[in-house]
Structures are given as C-alpha cells and as structure tokens.
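FIELD: query
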Amino acid sequence: MVCLRVEKARVGGKYCVTESIMMKKIGFIGLGIMGKPMALNLIKAGYALNVLKSSKASSELEKEGATTFESSKVLAEKSDVVITMLPDSPEVKNVVFGADGVFEGISQGTIFVDMSTIAPSTAREIYAKLQEKGVEALDAPVSGGQVGAETGNLSIMCGGSQAAFDAVMPLFQVMGKSAVLIGDAGAGQMTKACNQMIVGMTIQAVSESFTLAKKAGVDLAKMREALLGGFAQSRILDLHGQRIIDRNFDPGFKIKLHRKDMNIALEAGKEFSVPLYGSALVASHMDALLALGNGEKDHSSIALLMEKLSGLE
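FIELD: result
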C-alpha cells in the first residue's frame, strides 16, 4: 500500500498542507453503479476500506474485506481519506452536513474527495466549510461510465490544492487512467459540466444522423464503419453507434442522470451569462425521454426519441 499523510498549518488565514504522512484507511460513501466497482478496486489494491452499513453492496464489500459503519460521522472519524460518490448536490450536502454527517466526524488532516457530479457552487461551498476545520477538499468528478469504473479506467478531473491532489494521487491511479488538477475548488465540477455538454451534444448528433440514415434505408453498420475511418470518428460514435444498431439501451449511464448533469451545465451558463443553445436542446430531448418513462435507459436512448419523432417507431 502507498502511504501518505497530510498535516496542516495556518498560513495567511488558510490551512495549508505542509508535509506527507500515512494514508491508512479510506472511507467510501455511495456504492451505486459507479461507486461500488471503484470501492472494490481500492480493496483489491490493498487499501483498508470503510463503508456505510446500508445496502446489499456494503455486505458484498464487507465479504471482500471492507469494514462497515452505521453513520457517516463515525466513518469519517475512522478514515484518513473520505470519498463520496453520490447522485447530486443535495445528497452530497446531506451526507456531509446532515445529522451524523461527515462534517461532525472529520478531523484536521483528513482529506475529503467528492467524486460525484454536482454543481460547482456546491463544491466551493463544501471546500470553504471544510477549510474551517483544517480539512482539505477536492472536487473530483469522473468520466468513463460503469465500464470505466469497473476497469479502473476513469478520467478524473479535479479542483482543489496541489498538495491534496498529490496526496490522493495513488488512489486516483487505482480508480482511473488519468487525473488532472484543473484549478481551485469547483474547477473539477465545471470541467465535468463541460464534458457532459460535449457528450450530450455528440450523442444528439449521432442519434440524428443514424435516424436519418435509417429512414433513408442506409445500412447503419456499414455507415458506422465508414464514419469511424474519417473525421467524424469519436468514442461516442464507436460505442453508442453500436448500441443504436444493436438496440441495446441498458444503462451504462442513465438518461435521468445525464439530464441532471445538463441542468448543472445550464445553471452554470446562467451564472456566467453564457448562452448554451445546444445544451438546452439536448436537455429538452432528455426531458421528453423522462416524460416517456425512459429515464432508466442509457443516454444513447436519445436515438429512440429521434426515431419516434421521425415516424420510425
């Protein structure tokens, strides 16, 4: 196991990381479709993992060697690093600041790492409050979906201090293929919002083009093969193009979660007075899919809406 530690000293009214010490126990909160495999990879890498005793997933991880706790407060007390992987800003704030939450148990020198996708403003709020306790916080959302979580090939985008980022880099190397410190608190979440905009609009483009080709009688498999050899090549065309051909809309990343992410992007656009026309269109199509009861399907199911609107259903 890689051993690191963080100690704090007051410098100019802020807590700063001053030296490295041991990172012994990792607390992990949020064992969903992404969190569970991420936590399992940490166990396999030799880390002592603490989880909440609240689900079937926690029982499975306990069998792999994880220690379970009844509350986020106690988990934080017993951990050197606390990681959260939760659906949205309200859930993260509740786990951190709610009754028996992380904030009540976390102590100076611990590092808090939120790997959820939440609003940049919420990430900045959490960072500021934890600084008051001498705790470094990183916002570290990920891209790569369930497959990336399972294989340890996530892309991790971070906001926070260089020292905290360096301290948890061994953990990022277990869970991801790349980790980049973007800037100060909130920068990771802003980068993730931009990522989700690009992904959403690219899925929209692939869905529209495949719907047009399908209605015109073009062989989708051959079209995909041809496009992958040209400038239109992308991972989304590769993976989601195949999903559309195979009619496989089982979730790798649920449409309802991507809709939440698009809302984060649109709110950021309002905050900084940036018009996000393409993102707004994609978000409205996701709203339609939710209204049709397709929120649990993969985000590539935008193709289903395009087909329905084109009379192909």
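FIELD: remark
Residues 187-215 form the longest helix (29 residues).
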